[in-house]
Write a structure and sequence with these properties.
5 helices; alpha+beta; about 25% strand; 6-stranded mixed sheet; globular
């Protein structure tokens, strides 16, 4: 599927240049877990649970991705946006990835779709535009030092998705 110069594709593995997405996106955050190809392959491809990957490419360069997972919660078939990453200066890429992810999960009969995003961040605002509603807060547990206090006090710009936790 193509939108302007961006293509959105479901793939079986992460492309070789996926680490460039992390390098570009990381510049906009004071705290973000590394997302190079070796980590993403270990986290999602070597995992016994099945994940689906959508990538966005511009001029044959990877500029974003979203990782999907399915499950059941309280008897409801769920779709999860387990992980996602796009450089902040390309919010239209994230919107395109979300549109494709939602359509793919709906085609798989997901009754609900869940995602985690840092409240007030640009991912959070984009997800709200797509109809994602806040269901509940997710507690962040961190070491009680100066850095931990900066995270809790919302003085740092950070990125955290479900896949950064043990919850998916």
């Amino acid at each position: 599927v193509r939108t302007k110069r961006i293509s959105f594709t479901s793939v079986d593995r992460f492309p070789e240049d996926i680490g460039n997405v992390w390098k570009q996106a990381a510049r906009g955050h004071e705290w973000i877990l590394e997302r190079r190809k070796t980590y993403l392959d270990w986290r999602f491809m070597a995992n016994p649970d099945p994940y689906k990957i959508w990538i966005a490419q511009e001029s044959n360069r990877t500029v974003g991705y979203v990782v999907l997972k399915q499950g059941v919660w309280r008897g409801i078939r769920m779709g999860y946006l387990a992980d996602f990453l796009v450089a902040e200066e390309k919010p239209f890429v994230f919107s395109g990835l979300i549109a494709h992810a939602v359509k793919a999960l709906r085609n798989e009969k997901a009754g609900l779709i869940a995602a985690w995003a840092v409240k007030g961040g640009w991912y959070h605002l984009a997800l709200k535009k797509y109809g994602f509603l806040r269901y509940k807060s997710v507690p962040v547990i961190c070491y009680k030092n100066d850095f931990g206090r900066m995270i809790i006090d919302k003085r740092l710009k950070w990125h955290f998705t479900m896949s950064d936790s043990d919850n998916i």
